[in-house]
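RETRY 2/3 - previous attempt timed out on the joint model. Re-submitting the same 642-residue input unchanged.
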Amino acid sequence: MKLLLIEDEKALATSIQNYFQRENFICEWAADYQTAVEKINIYRYDCVLVDLMLPDGDGLDAVRELKRSFPETGIIIISAKNSLDDRITGLNLGSDDYLTKPFHLSELNARVQAVIRRRSFQGSQQIRFGKIQIDPQEHLVLVDQQEIVLTRKEYDLLVYLIANKNRVLTKESIAEHLWGDDADLMDNFDFIYTHIKNLRKKLMDKGCPDYLKSIYGVGYKFSEQ
Amino acid sequence: MKLLERILKYQIVTSLSVLTLGAVLFYFSVDYLIDQEVNKELMRSKAKVSWQLRHIDELPVYILQLGDSLQLDQVRYPGQMALVERKLFNEFESEYQPYRQLIFYERVEGAWYRVTISKLLAQRQQLLEAVVMTVTFIVALLLISLLLLNSWLSRRLWRPFYKTLRALDSYEVEKHEVLTFPKQHTVEFEQLNQSVTQFTDRLAATYQNLKEFTENASHEIQTPLAVILSKIEGLFQDESLKESQLVALSEISEAANRLARLNQALLLLTKIENRQFLAGTEPISLVPIINRKLRDLEDLIEQREITVKTAIEPTGPVMHPALAEVLVNNLLTNAIRYNINGGTIDITLHAGKLVVRNTGSPIHIDPELMFERFRKEGTHSASLGLGLALAKTICQVNGQTLRYETDGPWHILTVTW
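RETRY 2/3 succeeded.
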């Protein structure tokens, strides 16, 4: 998979690049509008991450440019602007998602994967992890071809965990992914634990190995080892 | 007391005292004139009587009849001429009346006579009455005209002043208003209006600057926060970290997350106050927002065993949909956060009114204070303390009212529009 990151803040760009490299993605970086447009017009990317405020231009123009040259490329806007107008303009221009800074890299990762999945052909839309197979369109979860019934939150949690497999996920990032702005309603994170526990139990009941490790004081990690 | 009333008070006091003083002076001067006149008349009578007495032998006797006012008494010796005042009984009107008498002595045919000429002083009484009546009439006239003038002045001349006052009264700095007025003929009012215009102009500009600064600052904070959070997240993946380091990192991450949320809430608050979310023209139904929110929160509601009762009609105020969302969000999350386990939430939505009631532990301060920023009752550490402030601000900019009341275990938040 090939990503283009259009972001003028070097420190943030490095973090994002590092994160996606671990995912075995190729993540190229353009620090300004000019470089971005050059790259957009030459190369093909699976997904482009655009910051709206660039030193020499408006990220929205880059989105327009991209839509013209490669309309099938996934686009995620990452912006410090949370203004509704920008969000609507961005989505109207054909961007797939809009993420407000600051965000969790794991969240960005999950969204990138969702965008790529949506934009690819039917066959590869399936999410596979070990014995687990998920059909995102049907919200269907199979373990060894047996269906397991998950609640909406458990399903979201599972998809999020798999998208960020082999990584340490903080409780806050999980809470924010599942409840968005209401994450601060979880006065302690026991509540996440309830969901984790239920999910783990449902998976293991169908013969899944225990993929979910809890990392003391931090959060969880979903991995095959 | 109104300025005009105060002026009127002084006007009345001044005119009353001037008029009373004038009346007294008038009375005395007229009295003096009459006095002089009476004396002159008496002297003329005296001259006449003296002449008549000296020529009494040549004149018929009846000539001397000057009526009651003339009296002749024979005396042995002549005395000093005197002018006296005394009350005499008037038989016609059967009462005592003031008379002025001129007493003098005249020698008639070898004998001395005391001549007394009396003159009724009835004029003085009449004069007093006339003066008092005139003054009373003038005072009444003056009062009425002052009152009339006053009300006319307040209606006409003072109208621009009251207009300015009303405009200032309803002035809201949050609206970034600059008050302007039509040109006035009165110099003072024109000056006042110009000052008010300049003042509100500066105020609006300052307020705007401040708000822009807040917004920009909040905005600029987002990027460094994003860097911090992304670096922490990168570090978490480092397997060489010790547990204690991970825990410390986790705490840093939590704090940074909280800072990010706080910053976003403040940014939103500032934007709402800056009126960046303009209401549309159509009312928006709150029903889908409420239902969506309840669905989002259902597992939380379930976990805390909260019963939710709804009685909602498809209605809602005219406002920006995003703000409606934030408003409903904050009211509902507030009702859940401060609820007790096993409690109840009552949501009623009717035309012009949204009521969210929830059970909860009693608060010990004025409920209205809960709308202040960062005001928290109890120790809900995860709460930013901005939820209700946000809800209040949204209602304020949209012209709705938000009230917080408590009733026993119930906390009642009411939005009316």
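The longest strand of chain B covers residues 95-108. Closing ticket.
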